[in-house]
Design goal:
Length: 203
């Protein structure tokens, strides 16, 4: 694992992150909520490797991180009133919409849709913009365990499994709020850092 202090060199951190993603590697990066584990969502080998790192079963799926709403609507169908939710992005949300495209097993699905995330974090957004393709976003932990926030704990657990850690210090936050827009009426799957009061106004 290579560790980069993002506070001392954000540009270098972005460049290294893009290199890791392009070669099918796995990285840990900061977001507006928690640290995220990331890999190229189009790379079947990278997806499989991340599932092994997370000790995740094949029945669970990953979401993807994107740079902006323009990229989001290329991948998912956003219908009618649901479009108003996009005004909350970038932000601490994972929105699940019907998918337009097929990813490797472990990411989204025809019946369950695709989780999409545009974090309000300059480094994460710049990585997504420079890589210019969907990036897996998932919490830094083993499946079923709480997310890790302390860099020393992250290194201890994932040092042998992850190629790059973009260290931004301790991050203490709730995870993103997850809302499904698969049905006409939105469903809050997980209440996290993102406020959900706007749903009452819209629906």
């Amino acid at each position: 694992m290579e560790i980069v202090d993002v506070k001392k060199g954000a540009d270098r951190a972005v460049s290294l992150a893009v290199e890791v993603l392009k070669r099918g590697g796995v990285l840990i990066y900061p977001t507006d909520t928690l640290y995220g584990l990331g890999a190229n969502a189009r790379d079947k080998g990278a997806v499989s490797r991340l599932m092994e790192i997370k000790s995740r079963s094949t029945g669970l799926v990953f979401s993807v991180m994107l740079s902006d709403v323009g990229e989001l609507v290329k991948l998912v169908r956003v219908r009618g009133k649901h479009r108003a939710a996009l005004e909350r992005l970038p932000g601490p949300y994972t929105f699940v919409f019907p998918t337009k495209t097929k990813f490797p097993d472990g990411i989204g699905g025809k019946q369950i849709g695709l989780g999409v995330r545009i974090p309000d974090h300059p480094l994460a957004l710049e990585i997504a913009r420079k890589f210019n393709a969907p990036i897996i976003t998932t919490s830094v932990n083993k499946t079923g365990e709480p997310p890790l926030a302390n860099p020393s704990e992250i290194v201890e657990m994932f040092e042998d499994d992850v190629d790059l850690f973009l260290n931004s210090g301790k991050i203490v936050s709730k995870p993103s709020t997850v809302i499904s827009f698969i049905s006409t009426k939105p469903v809050v799957i997980r209440k996290g850092a993102g406020d959900i009061s706007f749903l009452k106004e819209l629906f």
